[in-house]
Design a protein that fits this description.
This protein is mainly beta and 364 residues long. It has four helices and 22 strands. An eight-stranded antiparallel sheet has the order 9-10-11-12-22-18-17-14. Strands 6, 13, 15, 16, 19, 20 and 21 form a seven-stranded antiparallel sheet that branches. The chain has a five-stranded antiparallel sheet with strand order 1-2-3-4-5, with no helix packed on it. A hairpin with a 5-residue loop joins strand 10 and strand 11. The protein is globular, with a radius of gyration of 20 Å. The N and C termini lie far apart (46 Å). 42% of the residues are buried.
Length: 364
Amino acid sequence: MKTWKPDGDRETCVRRYGNMKQLCGLRRYILMDGKARGVEAVDVETGGGLRFTVLPGRGMDISELRYRGVPLAYLSKAGVTAPSYHDARESQWLKSFFAGALTTCGITNAGPDVRDDIGILKDVPFGLHGDISNTGADNVCTREEWVDGEYRMCVSGRMEEGRLHGEHLQLRRSVTTALGANCFCIEDVFTNVGELPQMLMFFYHINLGHPLLGPGARFAAPSRRVWAETPHAKAGLEIYDRCTLPQAGYLEQQFFHEMGADVNGNTLCALINDELELAVYLKYNVRELPCIAQWKVLRDAEYVLAFEPGNCHPIGRIAQKAKGAAEILDPMQSRTARLEIGVADGAEEIAALEAAISARRNLS
C-alpha cells in the first residue's frame, strides 16, 4: 500500500470526516492491572503514524512510543508502576523505573542517593534520581482544537515537591503535537513556590530500544568533545556511537558530550538505523539544557540507548555543589526547558537530519 498522509487543512477534514477521532486525538483512561493500577494515562495519536502515551499518574512522563506500529521506546522489567510502590531509599528507585520514551529525573536530586541539608532540616535523604517521576499530576488538562488552521493536541499537568520546613518546587508540563506530525514537543516550567532559595537539579532520561536499536544503529550528534569517567566506559570510548546485538554481562557505559549548536543555542542528536531507514531525534537548546549524557546498555533484556539532556550530569546534588555548578531558584523564580522528540522516516529525511547535525558541529 502506498504511504498515506492525513489531510491537514480544516476545510478538507470537515468535509471528509464526521469526527476528528476517526483520524487522530487523545484518549484518557486509568490503568487497571497489577502494579500499574490507578495510574492515569493519555494515548496521543497524530494520524501521521506517531503514537505515544503520556502518564499524568507518573509525573507526566511518557511510556510507549510507536511509529507506524514499530516500537521505539525501551520498557524496563519494572513496567509502569503506581507511585504507591515508589521507594526512595538508596537505589530502590530502579524498581519503579519503567524507562519508556521519557522518565524525568530530579528535581531536587539527579544521580546517586545522597544526604544533604535544606533549610532548617539537616541530613535529609535524597534518593536515586529524585521523586518527580513518581509524583502524580494535578490540574491535568487535555485539549484538541483547531488553531491557526492546524489541529493541535495538548496534554498538560502540574507536579509539586514539598515538605514542612523544606523545599516547595513546582513543575508544569505541556506535551503538544499536531495532526499528521511525526514529533511532539515538551515544555517544562520549573518554579520555586517556597520561601527559601532551592537547588534545582534535573535531566530527561529518553530511552530507545529494539528494533531501532540494533546492529548497525548509530548515535549521531554534533559533539565537539566526548569523554567518559568510568574504566569500562573509557574502554568503549572509540565506539561510543556504534551498537551491537545484546551481550550477556555487558556493563553499562555512559558518555558525556559537549554539543555544538547554532547561533541561538539550538542543537540536536539522533539514534539512526539505516537498515530500517528510521531515526529518532532530539532537539533542544543548550542554554536551557547545558549538559547531556549518552547512556548505552547493550545487555540481554536490558538493551537500551538513552539521551540524557539536563541542567546537570547525573552525579548527585553533593557532587554538583562541589563543582560550583548548582542551579539555584530564588523564591517565586521560574525557568523553562523545551524539548522536541521526533522521527525521521526514510533515507531522504535521515540525510537532512544528518546534515543539520553536521552543520551544528562545524559552527564555532
